[in-house]
Amino acid sequence: MAKKSSSSGGSELNLDSLMDAVTNVVGVLMIVFVVMALNTARVVQKILSDLPPVTEEEHKQMKDKVEALPPPVADPKKLDEEKIKIDTDLKKIVEDLKTIDTSDLAAKAKSMDLDEYKKQLEARKKEREQQKAASEKLLAEVERLKALLDQTPIYQPPPAKYVRLPNPRPYPEKPNETRVLVAKQGVLSFNQPKFMQPILDGMEKVKSQLEYQRVEYPVFAKLMEKILGPVATKAWPEIAPLVNRMQIEHAAETYKVLAEGGIPPTKQILEAIADLSIPTRSTMPVVAAAIVSASKGSTADWVKLDPSRDPATPIIKATTSGGKITFGWGAKTAEVKANPKDVLEYFVKDLAKTKGIEDASKARTIYDATRIAALLQRAATNPLLTGSYTFEVDPQPTLAYTRLALKPKGGGGETVDALKLPNSAFIRLMRDVKADPNGVVLFQVMPDAFDAYLEARRVADEVGVAATWDFLAKLDINVNLTAYEIQRLEPAGTARPRPGGTAPIGIAPPKKTLD
């Protein structure tokens, strides 16, 4: 049989050739079966020929039996011919089978390597065991979570909170502010005017004893040397007399401006400049810089210090003509030569002696911070003055006033539950604030106490007081004693206007409003 070409390009086993081969094999088997039948017939014939003679009756019986047998399958001669033909066909089939292309089948058999399949099977088993372990771990975790869930208490939502819509309103022009400090545990009230009034009353009675009795250079040495450097000790005798009425910082800066401008900074000149700074509403260094400019022929800086609020009617006037300068202060005028000596004499000996200017700086009193601190420390031991707070002096070298640091006493204030009782101290306080036309409650809330604030605010709203709130970093309070000015021991560090210039522009904090 001829070899059939593969229609699939050799990639798969040629099924047509295989089917032809199988068909030929079946044919051969059938032929073999026929040959076996013929051999059987021959054997039967031989047996019959070898049989002994029989009688007629026996022959008849045998004949009847033979006739009863089925006819032979085929003629023996024809069977021989068929056998020869089958042998020929079988040889041809064998030759055709030898020519069948088995490359694809061999390739497939090669790819089906048993060892390789065993390795893959082991790998799959290992992977399955790993997945099984992971699944068992996840199932164990699920069981653990179920157990935890069974032990978890049923969530109970917190009670409803008091919520109010804000209602912005203007803050009173002169508020009597009561501060309510709100912590997580409760509230603590603080009315600064009520707290400070007994202290201020006590200081008022002895304020003359709080002034400087003796001025010592070491107290101001650091400040003086920072501004004037090596000449600080030389300048101190000229500056020290101003300690009760001017900031030493300003006096030292004035001394420096005059010295750099070629004007000897004497005690008389410094006192005159201190008096001039009051009606011009300027600092001493600014006035000194204007005088230095005027002594050099430029009066623009001096004119810019005009305190008049109506530009059409200035108080300060100055015109230069023919080597002379005509100065005016209100209705008073004076003509002086345009030289440093005469211009300086006008300011120091003429203008500074004018009524309303002379000794104007003496109306200002600067107190001894050391004496004030000693008095306040004694007051801090009086329980009638301290109330719910203890306080101590908190020195701030850059401030021109004394600062008190207040701390709540243990057990002061009211808890959230107590303040809601009908006659609690908090409710009585709210009623007192409401009775004051300018009364305002400022709630200052700690970061973790907003829930307590909501309860306190609900009570305040029921009473009907005007209120607002802001955040408070800690319960400690700082109170500034601004009624008694003291000397700064370090420069304030704030920018001052240049001579004749305008003050630096600042952004004011947002105004308070009721909510």
Brief descriptors of the model:
515 residues; alpha+beta; 3-stranded antiparallel sheet; 18 helices; 13% strand
What does this structure look like?
- By secondary structure, the protein is of the alpha+beta class.
- It has four domains: 15-111; 119-152; 169-207 and 368-493, no CATH class; 213-363, no CATH class.
- It has 18 helices and 13 strands.
- It has helices at residues 15-49, 56-68, 76-98, 103-111, 114-151, 192-205, 217-228, 232-239, 248-260, 267-277, 284-295, 300-303, 340-350, 369-379, 383-386, 416-419, 425-435, 450-463, and strands at 169-170, 176-182, 186-191, 316-321, 324-329, 332-337, 389-393, 402-408, 414-415, 439-445, 467-471, 477-481, 513-514.
- The strands form four sheets. Strands 9-3-2-10-11 form a five-stranded mixed sheet.
- A hairpin with a 2-residue loop joins β4 (316-321) and β5.
- The longest helix has 38 residues, at 114-151.
- The two termini are 109 Å apart.
- The model is unreliable at 1-12 and 494-503 (pLDDT under 50).
